[in-house]
Write a structure and sequence with these properties.
CATH superfamily of the largest domain: Heat shock protein DnaJ, cysteine-rich domain
Shape: flat
CATH class of the largest domain: Mainly Beta
Number of domains: 4
CATH architecture of the largest domain: Ribbon
Number of strands: 15
Order of helices and strands: HHHHHEHEEEEEEEEEEHEEEEHH
Radius of gyration: 39 Å
Number of helices: 9
Length: about 375
């Protein structure tokens, strides 16, 4: 028994060849050495060798085993058939030869390729239409509290008279005699290499499998009417940018009397000049004076629900964050409402009145008398 050639040599490629390079080499050689096309004496053996090599190298797992163990790792792998990928490639090859494909109906006996089946069938029953997508801009406050937005769009609505059939009455619908209701027709082509058959859409019923004797007078046989409609879209409280709202039945029209697809609306929430949203929490910066930060105070803080009193503790430092419970964003699923986070900004006055300057000077004098309490003095002593 002759020793098997290296699979990479069989396909004429390097060991680091890409998936596309492997496929390209296989397709080229398969066209060249196919027994029903090639005139070379050993074409059949070479064709089998090419397919065996491609079956291994096109499969990542088999290829890895072969790269590690060679032909010894392929013992018991069970060659002789086509993998799905290889069969699809052969289908492409024969499409280039004869303008048609074949499915796994199998090879005919010695007279070329006889009676290939078709891999798919045209669906003649009702089919739901494709979904549609659009975006909607809403304000920051509308996202917090929710709203109902009315949008206007064109929709292919199912005809109310024929219910999408396109016929004047149910008795006006007949099975197509050309395709016997399958929606497809099969044609045969006889060549020097055998008989090939291909499948296409029935020209009489356009793939529906049905013939309409009398068309619906309302939609003129279309089964639908293009309508300009207004739709109320409920935007729930707490919605965020990127979330989608579904409106049933406002997508593309269905086929063969099937229902419309759905409309999906992506929400885009605008920004606010004071509030910053972080999930369910809302952040806001509130300025206070140095005196208020030192002595403490109570201030009215804006929230999305109106002004709310907030106690500022004495000795509050700049950038301190205080939490206002449940003054944030409602949970869109009905959970707990978020909080509002208030960041305190301590403002230092750039201009002082005479009275203010005198008071600050008195404060400075008091601090000078008690330097042991002054943090800067303590820091200097620590270094000394």
């Amino acid at each position: 028994m002759a020793e098997k050639r290296d699979y990479y040599d069989v396909l004429g490629i390097s060991k680091n060849a890409s998936e596309q390079e492997i496929k390209k080499a296989y397709r080229t050689l398969a066209k060249k050495y196919h027994p029903d096309v090639s005139e070379e004496k050993d074409a059949e053996e070479k064709f089998k060798e090419i397919n065996e090599a491609y079956e291994v190298l096109s499969d990542p797992n088999k290829k890895a085993t072969y790269d590690q163990f060679g032909h010894a790792g392929m013992d018991g792998a069970g060659f002789g058939g086509f993998s799905q990928g290889g069969f699809d490639d052969l289908n492409d090859i024969f499409s280039s030869f004869f303008g048609g494909g074949f499915s796994s109906g199998g090879f005919g006996s010695s007279g070329g390729f006889g009676g290939f089946g078709q891999s798919g069938r045209t669906r003649t029953g009702p089919m739901k239409g494709q979904d549609r997508y659009m975006s909607m801009n809403i304000s920051f406050m509308d996202a917090i509290f929710g709203k109902t937005e009315t949008i206007t769009l064109n929709v292919d609505e199912q005809c109310s008279h024929c219910k999408g059939s396109g016929a004047h009455s149910p008795s006006d619908i007949e099975t197509c005699s050309t395709c016997n209701g399958t929606g497809t027709v099969i044609s045969q082509q006889r060549t020097a290499f055998g008989v090939f058959q291909s499948q296409g859409i029935c020209p009489d019923c356009n793939g529906s499998g049905k013939i309409i004797k009398n068309k619906c007078k309302v939609c003129n046989g279309k089964g639908y009417k293009n309508e300009r409609v207004s739709v109320d879209v409920k935007v729930p409280a707490g919605i965020s940018t990127g979330q989608q709202l579904r409106v049933a039945g406002k997508g593309e029209r269905g086929l063969n009397g099937g229902p419309n697809g759905d409309l999906y609306i992506e929400v885009i929430v605008g920004r606010h000049d004071k509030f910053i949203r972080d999930g369910k929490n809302i952040h806001i910066k509130v300025p206070i004076s140095a005196v208020e930060a030192t002595l403490g105070t109570t201030i009215d803080v804006p929230t999305v629900y109106g002004d709310v009193e907030l106690k500022i503790p004495a000795g509050t430092q700049p950038n301190t964050q205080l939490r206002m419970r449940e003054k944030g964003v409602p949970d869109i699923r009905g959970g707990a409402t978020g909080d509002q986070i208030v960041e305190i900004q301590v403002n230092i006055s750039k201009k002082l009145s005479r009275e203010e300057r005198e008071l600050f000077q008195k404060l400075a004098n008091i601090e000078d008398k008690g330097k042991s309490k002054n943090p800067f003095e303590r820091l200097k002593k620590a270094f000394e």
